[in-house]
Each structure stands twice: as C-alpha cells, then as structure tokens.
Specification:
With 416 residues, the chain is α/β, with parallel strands linked by helices. The protein has 18 helices and 10 strands. It folds into 2 domains: 187 residues, Periplasmic binding protein-like II (D-Maltodextrin-Binding Protein, domain 2), CATH 3.40.190.10; 210 residues, D-Maltodextrin-Binding Protein, domain 2 (3-Layer(aba) Sandwich), CATH 3.40.190.10. Strands 1, 2, 3, 4, 5, 6, 7, 8, 9 and 10 form a 10-stranded mixed sheet that branches. The protein is globular, with a radius of gyration of 21 Å. InterPro entries: Bact_solute-bd_prot1 (IPR050490), SBP (IPR006059). This is Probable sugar-binding periplasmic protein. Part of a binding-protein-dependent transport system for a sugar. Keywords: Signal, Transport.
C-alpha cells in the first residue's frame, strides 16, 4: 500500500476517536512520547491552578496526524485544542475555518515576533496557534561504542564517514540507526537536518522561496549524495525499518549513531537502559566551513473554531503562555525549547549541549515548511519519496533533485 493510501486509511479509521464533549477539554497531538508528561505533570499543574476544568490528551502517530485531524474536523469530532505544526500545515487548517483566531488572547503578548512567525499572518493581525517550542536537529552517539573504538566526535563530512567506516569494520554494532519505511525520517530528520550545512541555511531556504535557487542546484543535491552514502552503513533490512525501530535499535546500544533531534531526548532517557549518549551537531562539508543548525519552530497549540468549551480552552492557552508552563515543559520534555519570553534554566545535559550550538552555528528551519508545501504535489510528500528512493538506491541524487524541482515548479510560480 502506498504512503498516501496508508494515510487515507488511517484517517478514516481514526475519524471517530476524537472527542469534543462539553465539560472536558481534549488536546489533539502527534507527540505520543509526551503523553505521560502531559497526564502526570502538565495537566495536573493546570488543574491545580484552574480547578474544575478537566483535560484529556489524545495522540495520533506523527505520519498520520495531519490527515486524521482533518478527517475529524470534517466529522465534527476533533478535539478542543489542536497541537499545531508550523507554517503551511496549520495555516491550511486556519484558512479552512477549523482553527480559531487567537491573536487577541493576552498570552500571545508573552512571545517574541520570531516565535509567532509560523502561526500568524504577515501583518500579525490574525494568529491561529500559540507558540510552544522549537527543536534542534543533530546526531546522538553511543559514548561507550566511541570509547571502545577510540573514536572522536566528527565535525566534518569526511570525519563522519571515517567514523562510520571504523564502526562497520569493527562489526559489533550498526554504524547508523536509520530506516526508510517511514519517509519522514529521511526527509524531516536527515535531509532538512544535515542539508543546511550545504545550502547555507537561510540563504538557501530563502532562495527556494524567492525562486532564485532550485532543488536541482548542487547545494541541494549535495545532501542527497550524503544520504546515498549513508545507505552503506545502515542496519540489514533498513528498508523495512520504521522510526520506532530506529529508536529501539539505538536505545538498546546496538547502533553507534542516530540522526535525530532534541525531541528524542526524553525517549532515550527513559528507554535507553544503561545507554550513555551524547549529541553532536550536523557536520560541515569541510574544515573551517560555517556551522548551520535547524533550530526549528516546531509546535504550537491552536483552538478548534467549533469547540463547545471556548472559555475553558482560552484559559488553558493563556496558562500555556506563562512562566509555570515554560519551566515545566522545558525540563519535563527536554529537547523542546520553550518559545515564550519567560527565562528557563535547563537541567538535562544533552538538551543544554544542543541549545549551546546556537552560540556557534547559524540557525534556520526546515526548508519545506514555509510557502512551499501548499500545492500539489506536496513538497513534504515529495521529499519523503525522494529521500526513500535515494537511500534505497532506486533514485540517483541528481534525479531526486530534479524530481523535487520539477514538482515544485508545477504549482509554485517563483520556481519556474
């Protein structure tokens, strides 16, 4: 079954699972890893401050979330509060009339303009989601494996593949835990995490938006070549390996490196029994090159425009904009960096390490999320198909870049 058909089937199956019942606030989210934190920490803290408001937290798997929530909007069963992805996806929900305009909520004043950019109109007169957190892309590595093999944390592409070659030669663990069964793992983690080092972050991303650069240009094909090289260092049967499988392999100590992001810190702290791991930033093409990181405005919270609990939902959103939520969320979900102006001290060492990269690296966000994912074919979907094809060695990097460029040019005028 194709990826698109799987999404449609999942959406149909999940239409009836949403709850929008008067007297209870229901949150829709793709973050299953955070479920315990919401239920045991965040929601109790909110209810202590606001007794009488009941809150439930429902999750849908990440790659099914958008289609499933849209299906529930149509069926009238969507939750009261909708966790929002950035830019085009949430904006589409707003323009369809499914998300309420929350620009006037007092809590919105607690966020800088840069944090609200992904969820408001250009003139800032309307906003559909309240900012929550950003995430930073990079790599996690097994400290024990590195120590046993005498490996140093790589900073350049050559050093990176030299490390992988040495791990492969040792034959004890997989060099890289990565699969292609879930297309978003190849696109949203590898391509848009490592890619900015080649297309120079915002310079390349803005070039795509303006139409002065194309995915077929060398700097956008380069990360596809990087991904093609990765295929030689992946676990046996990686074509059938999903994201959860990748997580489990690394957590169990059976892989040296995993391409990932700060959002996975909580998972490995919980599931990595005996795992000692650290983080290193995306490698640069050659020594001396500028470091770029994807410091991605990742999530926010919107309100269902048809909620039966508008007042309670507004109370919850305003609470989320305060210092109590920022402090709890930043430390109970390490790797999700609060976007509010409230000062937060992070206690998790890996989260603190990744946050420190902001001092030396230029920030950017995922290349496809602003303006470029609104048409058909969807750039996000195309990136998944191309990423899978390249790593599975069924598509050359050059052909992949051309496919992305041609697909975007079909509907995005600046790309012509």
């Amino acid at each position: 079954m194709s990826f698109q058909l799987r999404i449609a089937a999942a959406a149909a199956a999940l239409v009836c699972t949403g709850i929008a019942t008067a007297g209870t606030l229901t949150i829709e989210s793709w973050r299953g890893d955070d479920k315990a934190t919401w239920e045991q920490v965040l929601i109790p803290a909110f209810q202590k401050a606001n007794p009488g408001i009941t809150v439930k937290f429902l999750t849908t798997t990440p790659n099914e979330y958008n289609a499933a929530v849209n299906a529930r909007f149509i069926a009238g069963t969507a939750g009261d509060l909708i966790q929002c992805r950035p830019f085009d996806l949430a904006e589409t929900m707003y323009k369809a009339g499914n998300l309420a305009d929350i620009a006037a909520l007092p809590g919105m004043k607690n966020f800088p303009t840069s944090a609200k950019l992904a969820w408001q109109t250009a003139d800032a007169k309307s906003a559909w989601c309240m900012p929550m957190a950003s995430v930073i892309h990079g790599y996690f590595y097994n400290k024990k494996v590195f120590a046993e093999l005498g490996l140093k944390v790589p900073t350049t592409e050559a050093e990176f593949f030299d490390v992988l070659a040495k791990v492969k030669s040792a034959g004890k663990v997989a060099p890289v835990s990565l699969g292609t069964a879930d297309g978003w793992e190849t696109s949203e983690i590898v391509y848009t995490g490592q890619g900015p080092a080649y297309w120079k972050g915002e310079e390349g991303r803005q070039g795509l938006i303006k139409g002065t650069k194309k995915f077929s240009d060398p700097e956008f094909v380069a990360p596809l070549k990087f991904m093609e090289k990765l295929a030689d260092y992946l676990p046996k049967g990686y074509q059938a390996q999903g994201y959860g499988d990748s997580q489990t392999l690394f957590a169990s100590g059976k892989a040296a490196i995993i391409p990932t992001g700060s959002w996975d810190i909580s998972f490995y702290d919980k599931e990595g029994k005996g795992l000692e791991y650290g983080a290193f930033r995306p490698v640069v093409p050659k020594k001396g090159d500028t470091c770029y990181i994807s410091d991605h405005i990742d999530m926010a919270m919107g309100m269902n425009s048809k909620t039966k609990n508008k007042k309670d939902a507004e109370v919850f959103l305003n609470w989320m904009a305060g210092s109590e939520f920022a402090e709890l969320f930043g430390n109970k979900t390490p790797g999700f960096f609060p976007l509010s102006s409230a000062p937060v001290k992070l206690t998790n060492p890996v989260a603190a390490e990744m946050l420190s990269w902001r001092k030396d690296c230029k920030p950017t966000i995922r290349a496809q999320v602003q303006h470029l994912d609104k048409g058909q074919p969807s750039l996000g979907a195309e990136l998944q198909v191309v990423g899978q094809g390249v790593i599975n060695k069924k598509l050359s990097p050059e052909a992949g870049g051309k496919q992305l460029a041609d697909g975007l040019a079909k509907w995005y005028k600046p790309a012509n």
